[in-house]
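Researcher: Next sequence.
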Amino acid sequence: MNLGVIDYGASNIFSVARALKSLGANVSIVDDPIKFKGIDKLVFPGQGSMGSCVRKLKEKEMMNPLLEGIKSKPFLGICLGLQILFESSEESEEQGLGLIDGCITRITDLQNENLKIPHMGWNNIKFQKDHELFEGIADKQFFYFVHSFIASQSGTSITTTNYGEEFVSSLALENIFATQFHPEKSGKLGLKFLNNFINWKV
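Model: Next structure:
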């Protein structure tokens, strides 16, 4: 089993790769179109804006291989790796991958709590549906977040989290799973989640 961690040139991928390796996974860094060959599962950790990410993927000619990989292999998107699955984002003019309907929006303080943006730190996730990747993880456990933009709703939602408003903290669509939280920064529960992904059979 070979896990490919996508490196499009503008994200810190090494904490994710290190966490996966600590669990015994065979990890390859995918930073070139040809390196998608021989990969069994894909992990897309992301920081920064959707626009910058899309531009760099196109510059490196990785967009089409990435789309083909997402459609055919187990895929885990983390943070921006969740947001890029959507059609668009208020953050950028560039379009997302369009695999999930909807637009990513800026966090709004609907409850007038003078929230700090970005949402940074620990927050709990609430199950909306069961999923294999949360096997052995109880409802309302805390995971680590760093983000300013959200998917406020989606029919693909597995968990939600509240920060000024309710937002999608994880989602699933067939072989695709994505989290707004950072499992690699979420201690033992995050490692449990990543181990579930390593062993996930779609």
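Model: The first strand starts at residue 2 and ends at 6. The mean pLDDT is 95.
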